[in-house]
Amino acid sequence: MMTSSENILTIEELSIYLKISVSTLYKLAREGKLPAKKVGRHWRFHKRAIDQWMATERLPL
Question: What values do phi and psi take at 14, rounded to 5?
């Protein structure tokens, strides 16, 4: 079972997890194309929502 801290990813952790550059992730998050929450100045990502997004969305290549 995942703890809540393992379920929430920073943009750097998400970059490693998805093997996508941080700059691309920032762009997708700002454009609303990636399930994300902005907390203050920082983006946070729910791993489960990212996994669902990956299963249904086409990635920009």
Answer: -65, -40
Which residue(s) pair with 45 in the sheet?
9
The structural architecture, per CATH, of the domain 4-56 is Alpha-Beta Complex (3.90)
Q: What residue segments make up the domains of the chain, in order of their start?
A: 4-56
Compute the distance between CA of residue 28 and CA of residue 35 in angstroms, rounded to an integer: 9
Per-residue pLDDT of the chain (61 residues; tens, 9 = 90+): 455 567 999 999 999 999 999 999 999 999 999 999 999 999 999 999 999 999 987 665 5
Element holding 37 (H helix, E strand): strand 37-39
pTM of the full structure = 0.81
